[in-house]
Design a protein that fits this description.
Layout: H1 2-9, H2 13-29, H3 34-58, H4 60-65, H5 80-101, H6 103-121, H7 131-146, H8 156-173, H9 178-183, H10 189-193, H11 195-218, H12 227-249, H13 254-275
Helix pairs in contact: 2-3, 2-7, 2-13, 3-5, 3-6, 5-6, 6-7, 7-8, 8-11, 8-13, 11-12, 11-13, 12-13
């Protein structure tokens, strides 16, 4: 039981559950049959487990060097080898379930997973660290549409919104770890930009994503935008502006991270509401 709890704690359970829940919402919006929705959700969950576990398994030595006892693998509760074995098993499950849905879904999900693993394997330490997030989250809305019979990729505006969401997650998720990362040689794009610039870019990017959803879903005819989508758009705009103002008047902190994540979640809700 202790090992299972440690493995689960190493999957980055918060983001894993949020992304899985988003797949449920997008699956409903795409009107998937029950069995297809079930396969989609389990495939996405398994894929996120594989990315989270492989990340902590690869980073175990670096995390231990900076005293990250909050991470089970770095703390020695579970070995990196075991975690990597489970991660590989999870990615096999994700790929197999994707193949059972449709060839297009298999291709998109395989590319998404490869992107996430590439980040873990070394891209996180380069100026291109944001690329896997742009690719993975940009592809994410298409997982649901490609899971339908004769499925097609999601509209471009959904992919733009997804990519912006991924960028915001990356630019803010590492803010609390910047010093530890520098100490262990990790210098991704947020480290090069600095905390204030990263948070500002994330907030402005979320606004751009919200505008893309608004215009793309309506074909430019704003009268066609449903009320609920306007509500989420307005809320996203308010939170993003509040974030940008706070960054300008004081150094970025955990409050800034929470504000950007709230804006990103509101953008995701706007995307789902509009797609439905």
């Amino acid at each position: 039981m202790i090992v299972l709890r440690a493995l689960w704690g190493s999957t980055h359970p918060g983001p894993t559950l949020v992304v899985t829940a988003l797949s449920v919402a997008l699956g409903f919006a795409a009107h998937l049959e029950t069995w297809r929705l079930g396969l989609l959700v389990v495939a996405v969950f398994a894929g996120q487990v594989s990315i989270g576990l492989s990340n902590d398994a690869i980073d175990a030595a670096r995390d231990a060097a900076v005293g990250r006892t909050d991470k089970p693998i770095a703390a020695g509760v579970v070995s990196p080898r075991m975690a990597m074995g489970v991660a590989i098993g999870a990615v096999v499950v994700a790929v197999a379930l994707s193949a059972a849905l449709a060839p297009g879904m298999l291709a998109a999900h395989a590319l998404l997973l490869a992107s996430g693993w590439a980040y873990n394997a070394g891209l996180k330490s380069t100026m291109f660290s944001i690329v896997p997030f742009l690719v993975s989250f940009g592809l994410f809305p298409s997982l649901a549409t490609l899971s339908a019979p004769g499925g097609t990729p999601a509209p471009g505006w959904q992919s733009i919104a997804g990519a912006v969401l991924g960028a915001a997650v990356h630019l803010t998720n590492v803010l609390s770890d910047l010093d530890d990362d520098r100490a262990t040689g990790v210098r991704g794009l947020p480290h090069r930009l600095g905390a204030r610039a990263s948070a500002t870019c994330a907030a402005l990017g979320v606004v751009a994503g919200a505008v893309a959803v608004l215009l793309g879903s309506s074909g430019g005819d704003l009268a066609r935008v449903p009320i609920v989508a306007w509500v989420f758009f307005g809320a996203t705009l308010v939170v993003a502006i509040a974030t940008a103002v706070r960054v300008l008047v004081r150094p970025p902190d955990r409050t800034v991270f929470r504000l950007v994540m709230l804006a990103a979640l509101l953008l995701a809700a706007q995307l789902v509401a509009t797609a439905a």
